[in-house]
Amino acid sequence: MAIDLDDARRRYHYSFSPDDHDRLPFYSALLLALESDDLALEVLAAVPEEQRNPMLVLAALHLAALRGHSVLAPIYSGARHGDLPDPVSAARTVLGVFHDDPGLVRVELHRRTQTNEPGRAAVLQAVIVEVARRSGEQINLIDVGTSAGINLYLDYFPVRSVDDGEPLTLVCEDLTTVDRRQALPDIVSRVGIDLSPLDLHDDDDRLWLRACLWPEENRRHVRLDAVIEARHSWPVATVLTGDALDCLSDALSLGRPGITTVVVNTWAVAYFSKTAQRTYFDEMVRRCASGAVAWVSIESPFTVAWPAPSGEGAPPRKGGSQILATLPGAAPSTWGWCHPHGHWLWLKVPT
Known about the structure:
Blueprint lengths: L4 H10 L3 H6 L1 H11 L2 H8 L8 H13 L5 H9 L6 H14 L2 H4 L14 H15 L2 E7 L14 E2 L9 E2 L1 E2 L11 E9 L8 H10 L5 H13 L7 E4 L2 H10 L6 E7 L8 H14 L4 E7 L10 E2 L9 E6 L6 E6 L5 E4 L4
Parallel strand pairs: 1-5, 1-7, 2-3, 4-12, 5-6, 7-8, 9-11
Antiparallel strand pairs: 8-10, 10-11, 11-12
Helix pairs in contact: 1-3, 1-4, 3-7, 5-6, 5-10
């Protein structure tokens, strides 16, 4: 199989937004080092296209650290706890470990980057409130690419503009007027779809979820711990194992009849293996939206370009993810932009 090093280099280059580079000096330095390294390019380029995400390489290295690698463990622990005096030097050391033992990464490349970031719930809440305002106070929720199903519980995360210290609180900077006081709709059924769903009760799955987190963001690690502890008290959800193109009809059938079903995908369609599959998914959800189905898509325009949605153009900040929404019976349109992990939101709902 021919490998495309230029494609791998672009993926490393665009995998972080500018504000992430500013906030996370260790991972920023590590990504820049990987982008310029022939071995890192070759390893990423050899991954199947649908999983060719630099975060997979980062997570594999982080996993080795979490498992106690003698060199990596203290570096990643220092990054998590704000005790890494020279991030650039630390990144060079990590790259050296990678070169000494490329198998640390290669052996994990069968996995998927399943961050399952609940920070995106801050965006989903704001969008779904607007969907429900037009279609009813109850919804069925379907999450495509659900991983461990955490975002099926988007209504269990308070959203604030300032961190209040509570583990489940999400902090989101609203760049436009968003009324966070509006009540969320009652979610009466929760269904996830994933090719390889993760189980919060499984030790290896939990460790992989941690590895997919960025070590410098200790708040996300604390939140995952809180989610794992609280999950048993949350409502039952159904997770279907399989391709979204095959499982969506079954997922729709599991919802309560007579109310709107909201299908969401957040950085999931980017992992569909072929452009044709993305196009078919787009067409399939649009057809469903002719009935009592709404669709909310949050994806990077760098990796997923939906067919000519109407609405606002460029994101207000570099690296923003596009918020595409389709109300029942309507055409899709761009409702706004957000940080990939929900740190900021620019929302302008069409009238």
